[in-house]
Amino acid sequence: MTILLIKRIKPGVPVYSVTPGGKVETSDATHEDALRRELKEEIAGETEDLRLLHVLEDGDDRQHFYLTPISTWSFEDRTGP
Q: Is the dihedral of CA 48, 44, 5, 1 positive or negative?
């Protein structure tokens, strides 16, 4: 198994790594749709087999973590920052 991490570079913040993902937007019908959209934005990635791994809750904050194979990706074709 390989885990894909993205190197985040933000002004005034030390460089750090994260998995692809983000917030659910009103245009996303499901959490899975949100992840597919984020994968397209961040790595121009495609996936089909999304498996919920864990839900992390902290007060009103809830994060969903998925395992999924990425069938294709292209860092040059991403649309997100």
A: positive
Cα of 15 vs its chain's centroid, Å: 18
Q: Model-level pTM?
A: 0.83
Report the half-sphere exposure of 56 (CA within 13 A, side-chain side): 4
For residue 24, the 8-state DSSP code is P
Name the token pair of 57: 């809750």
C-alpha distances out from residue 7 to 11, 15, 41, 47, 78, Å: 13, 7, 15, 21, 14
Count other C-beta atoms under 10 Å from residue 42's C-beta.
21
- Which pLDDT does position 46 carry in this prediction? 92
Query: Is the predicted pLDDT of residue 74 greater than 90, yes or no?
Result: no
Question: What is the rounded distance in angstroms from the CA atom of residue 12 to the CA atom of residue 9?
Answer: 9
End-to-end CA distance of the chain: 27
